[in-house]
Amino acid sequence: DYSGTSTITTSVTSKEVGLLESQPVNDSYDIIVSEVAETPTVTGSVAVTAVLQEDTDILLDLNVTIRDLDASETVSQVRISGLTSIGEQNLTGMLVDGSGNLVGLSDGSGTTILTSAEYSAAKAGIAPIFFRPPADYSGTVSLSAVAVVQEPNGSTAMSASSSLSFKLTPVSVI
């Protein structure tokens, strides 16, 4: 997992038959080894305290494991997909904070991209992220999460997709 600059120094001489060995010719050069982002893993689940009912915001527990040994990588984004394909009618859910404000940026294809700051705040418990289901929807929700990590030089690596599925129960309306 090394990255950095190493200096290689060489010394070359030659000797022909019947002659003395030549004076050495010395030279050195630098080899620059750039850091490369390591593939992270991501897991997602609903928080153990989450109430899994329709019309209820569901607290998500997202965890990215960075595999870099020198601690130079950071999570640059977490992508949550499946938000526009909920249930048989392909209903749309969304990601919100504890105040109900939208979080992340939609890419227009059913994926919301959380920034590094949004993920970090959620992980620290400062600004938890919730899944808001479509109104009056009960049934299975199947989302997936992908994490992207980045080295300071811009090198990135993406995790494999991790499934995040749960079932919302209906609520009686009196």
Describe the structure.
By secondary structure, the protein is mainly beta. It is 5% helix and 43% strand. It has 1 helix and 12 strands. The strands form 3 sheets. Strands 5, 7, 8, 10, 11 and 12 form a 6-stranded antiparallel sheet that branches. Strands 3-4-9-6 form a 4-stranded antiparallel sheet. Strands 1-2 form a two-stranded antiparallel sheet. A hairpin with a 5-residue loop joins strand 10 and strand 11 (156-158). The longest helix is centred in the C-terminal third of the chain and has 8 residues, at 116-123. The model has no long low-confidence stretch (mean pLDDT 91).
| Low-confidence runs of at least 5 consecutive residues | none
Average of pLDDT: 91
Order of helices and strands: EEEEEEEEHEEEE
Which range does the strand content fall in? 35-45%
The helix fraction, in percent, is under 10%
Radius of gyration: 26 Å
Number of strands: 12
Question: What's the shape?
Answer: rod-shaped
Largest sheet: 6 strands, antiparallel
| Alpha carbon gap, first and last residue | 61 Å
Estimated structural class: mainly beta
Number of helices: 1
Short overview:
The chain is mainly beta and 174 residues long. The protein has one helix spanning 116-123, and strands spanning 4-12, 25-33, 41-46, 58-65, 74-81, 94-96, 105-106, 111-115, 130-132, 139-150, 156-158, 162-168.
